[in-house]
Amino acid sequence: MGHFATSHFSHTHGLKKTMEKAIFHAMHQHAKPTVKELNESLAFVNATRSGLKGLKFDVVLDVAGGHGAVAALFLCLAPGVEEAVVIDPAEVPSGKLGVGEGILPFVKPGKVLTYRTECLRTGLPAELERCRGRRVLVVACHACQHLTDEVVGIALQHGASGISVMPCCHKDRTGGAWKAAAKAFGVNIGTCMDLVLAGRLAPEGRLHGFDYEVRMRIASKTSTPQNRIVIGRRMDGLGGASAAAPGAPPHSVATEAAHERLTRAYDRAHRPREPTAAAPAVSAVRSAAAPAAAPTAPARRPAKTDAPVAVTGTWTAWRRVRSRAGEEVAARLSWEIVGRFAGCIAAVASVAILGRALVPALASTEAGLAPRRVAV
Predict the structure, then answer these.
(1) How far apart are the first and last CA of the chain?
(2) How many domains does the chain have?
């Protein structure tokens, strides 16, 4: 592993020149890291610090960090970080030189940047074991999706205090299920896979006995289109063993409160109701009206003519009585309507017959009453 000792930045700067501007100015004379890489690293560091606001870490493990700009920027901008380790199987000499000459001069004395040239499958677990009991933040800026998955899995298994990843090169390894879902939701596959990763983080952490709170942040849109950051923070904030009881996954205070409210609501909804005087319980009515038969004789099935509502109190019996009453009422109404209709027809016929008899008489009467001419 390579170590870089840091020295305090003592150059004179104007009052308006911030630390970030000073770093960019110092990096202009180096080809590596490029301006694009520096922009991405700075956007990732700032978004991570915003998502973990209020928390302090002792060590930052930068997985697949390459030149180490992310680790160096954490040493510069995060006051509590005293050590940063870059874990990457490949060496980037020009990038390491640029970081050493362009960023590390701004780091306070006593802070250390270390490069560990090793695969993350062995290097990350070893560093997490070495830092047990300290507040460790595991980060991965633009690691490929399968590497990001491995980084998150190892960090959760060892109970890292904080996790922050910004994946890239997203692929659907389920045979197209998530790709189809992303198309149905109207989002790109990268957004869909990042949401899947965020949803996986907390449950997988509980499987290992650690309770994580999950957040998402967006890095600066001008730095990179792959700017979605998944952040997880352990609720107790420490590395090492969990504070939960052995064999039981920990739960946050909010989760416990929600569980208590749900339990009370469930009890209220399923609490057995006490029988009232107006509507006695069915079992009590059955016991008083129909005593239990002898053990050797089968129970008598109630006849249709019995009073089913008072004896059995069943819905089926009540429905039968109601249907019978309805049929009787309908029959009575039908006969009443037929009778009234027949009466109307008879009245109309009578009026017609009477009219035919009166018309000739009225005609003759009218003729007899007509004035007659008298000759003078």
Answers:
(1) 160
(2) 2
For 258-280, the pLDDT digits (tens) are 778 888 887 888 777 766 555 55
pTM > 0.90: yes or no: no
Reduce the DSSP state of residue 21 to 3 states and report it: helix
| Whole-angstrom distance, CA of residue 326 vs CA of residue 324 | 5
Sequence-separated (6 or more) residues with CB below 8 Å from residue 210: 156, 159, 234, 242, 244, 250
**Closest C-alpha to 54, from 161, 154, 211:** 161
CA distance 156 to 206: 9
- Residues 339 and 216 reside in one and the same domain: no
| Whether residue 347 sits in one domain with residue 202 | no
The per-residue pLDDT for range 208-228, each reduced to its tens digit, is 999 999 999 998 766 678 899
Q: How far is CA 94 from CA 68, 100, 316, 329, 366, in A?
A: 11, 10, 87, 99, 135
CB 52 within 8 A of CB 137: yes
Q: CA dist 335 to 177, 332, 343, Å?
A: 67, 5, 12
